[in-house]
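Dear colleagues,

As part of the handover before I leave the project, I'm documenting each prediction I ran so the next person doesn't have to rerun anything. This entry is a single chain, and its sequence is reproduced below.
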Amino acid sequence: MQILIKSVKIVAPQSPFHGQIQDILVENGVIANIGSGIAAEGATVIEGKNLHAGPGWMDVFAQFCDPGQEYKEDLRSGASAAARGGFTTVMVVPNTQPAIHTKTQVEYILSQSRYGAVSVLPIGAISKNLEGASLAEMYEMRQTGAVAFSDGLKPVQASGILLKALQYVKAFDGTVIQIPDDQSISGHGLMNEGVQSTRLGMAGKPAIAEEIMLRRDIELARYTESRIHFTGISTRRSVELIAAAKAQGVQVTCSVTPYHLLFTDGDLSGYNSFLKVNPPLRTEDDVQALKDAIRDGVVDCFATHHQPQDWDAKEVEFEYAKPGMIGLESAFGALRIALPDVGIDRLTDMLSTAPRRIFHLPEATVEVGATADITVFEPDERYIFSEQHIASKSRNTPFLGKELKGSAKAIVRHKQFILHP
């Protein structure tokens, strides 16, 4: 099989072709040639205006609900959503039924997605059944193919369990992922605690619930000399704590969601349940702090926090709505709107190179002889996000009807490719 990408600007700092407009020929899953005027009779041709190509994008925190809640999402529809958004690799959280807490569940995820155009990589649970009481079979899961460890949407509350997990992953240089959230403080909240929650009469989730947990976990990482990744950070103080920890040599990295860069708690005035997320939307000042942290290099990468919910979970009173939104398909377009002054090189690094570096995965690059792992995109196209852009089984997104900028046009990975209209 041959795939020919015509007249594309290569965005891959590690490649000798970085910044050049060239043709890329992929044969049997390998980049066979890069140059001008390449001809390949019978090849599938990918072409268009202002096309860019770089290492395949990677998401580090998504929920595919399979097994257990396949009516919301399954591995196939989740992979389709990822491909539609330009992602060639997705790390999925262990919050399934049963949870990904043994090597059997890890094997299931890998076996179902091994030969697809999107690589779906399981995050193993830290605790058995995600109960936070005792460690799961972390070493066996690692040997089977788990790429990191987390209790996903249920952050570990017990200091002793997280301490043991951080010590345990040192044996194989692994990484623990945590949403910083002290649920004994935030558990009954519906949105960010502040002026807006008071005005709307809703119980608040104070920023300190995130910050106190983040401070605790940084100290545990410092003590164990182990690696921890915080995902979904959302406050100015969180940024400051992570920046200070990095400066002190603590092995800490972090990611933000696209929607935390675009929406604030003020957008909840209409009680839109699609905007009920965890961590909650914060203030304009917090959003600005996150954007500054991206420009300053404090934030390492992005995480979509793709969390499908069925119609019944969202079409209820705000108080009873389940948290989360889908995010894979809209991620790049949202980032281009939220971060207009951040260059394509920087975005590409945060979408592809940085996540692989954080989780010690093989590098993806665009050079002759490399295994194909490419995202083709148009960074400046403006469009109204609609149902036709969604491949997920669920529709819980506030971006419907919103103008976005930048879209994925195709992914090419190994011998597979998916071309979008």
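The two ends are 21 Å apart (CA to CA). The chain is about 30% helix and 25% strand.

All the best with the project,
I.
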